[in-house]
Give the backbone structure.
Amino acid sequence: MESWREERTRSVEDNEMSLPSLAAAYSTILRGLGEDPQRQGLLKTPWRAATAMQFFTKGYQEKIVDVMNDAIFDEDHDEMVIVKDIDMFSMCEHHLVPIFGRVHIGYLPNKRVLGLSKLARIVEIYSRRLQVRDSYENTTRRQRRVTDESQTSHRRVTDESQTSHRQVTDESQTSLKHFQIPASGKRKRHF
């Protein structure tokens, strides 16, 4: 069986069991920063931070096969399908800081197409894991065997208004372009 069908390293039950130890770790971090975790404004912060980190890394508890949900359709064409501007959010494994970016995916359907919203969901699964910025591009390319291009960047969070992020959802902005593959079979770089 293909590795992407089996991949899952964390379950919902794992999240529940590890939440107290993650919250305790955030209390330790607050103390290390010179803060008092028992201060009124910080009482629930360790728990909230632990829950947020689990959400930011939820890709570890999802499998592509669950997301695809039989959304592969037989279609009588071999045109390249490109989905552009899929927003993505990840966490740098070196500094635990956010990585924001956009992903563009192109693939040759070989008479079988995947629902466009599923591509955005696959991006979310792989982006919601700790990684270095450059590895995201290789992960998607290796796992889905598609041509993809990622535009990512670290952002230094300087105030609360910059901490929000846009989730990748089925309603993400995507653009679809079809390109006829030359009869000679040579593939061109279309994006």
Notes: The chain has six helices and seven strands. Residues 48 and 136 are 27 Å apart (CA to CA). Residues 12-32 form the longest helix (21 residues).
